[in-house]
Amino acid sequence: MNNLYNESILVCVYYGPNGERLLKRGCKIANMLQAPLYVLTIDPKPFDELDADKVHYIEKWKEFAQAHPTAQFIMKDNEHRPVSKVIAEVAREHQVTQIILGQTAHSRWEQITKGSIINSLVRDIPFVDLHIVSVARYIRDEEGLYEKGVRAYLFQDGEQYQLSFNHDKDTMYEGIFFKEADTDFDNGIFRFMKDAETLQVLVRDGVVTELMNVDMHTTVSLNDIES
């Protein structure tokens, strides 16, 4: 491929259902600009200590890169430096001109109160354009099984968790609740961030019995949270 515009695209992905969405955005931009595409993931643990779920995501990203002749997958494991420093280093090595990152509403609040990866990248590599892609607030649901996601919260109640639509001092997790259509009960999926990983757990009658990630084929959306 002739790189007509001297552009190079870097997509930063982390474990969870939104990686596919970021990859599609990066692939679209790379094809439009006829530019090379790099896919980067970073983990503080060595690769051989990662659990099966994380390895599964890594294999999917590798397959994506292998399926695109101009794409290259980069894994930075056993990495204890700040994430922004690693991203900046990779960007310099590959002469990246555009970086695509995912960001949730929670991380936007952290940006205001504590600073963020975004601010660090702007300082470290000011010559690179940053694309911030919001985490989806919709579940792709062609059969109409779920309603539009709404802001909700979990608080612990013994060994289980109660769903609430009001934030208070006992709130443990903030996220998006996707209610099943055609029901008067709070049944559905609750999607939230836990230890920098996106999880989606089952809710039955307003109760989450365990914080176990649900592997659903319908959870990746191309709709922005602002849509």
UniProtKB/TrEMBL annotation:
Residues 8-126 form the UspA domain. GO terms for molecular function: phosphorelay sensor kinase activity. It holds the Pfam family Usp. GO terms for cellular component: plasma membrane. It comes from the Bacteria. PANTHER family: SENSOR PROTEIN KDPD (PTHR45569). This is UspA domain-containing protein. It comes from Paenibacillus antibioticophila.
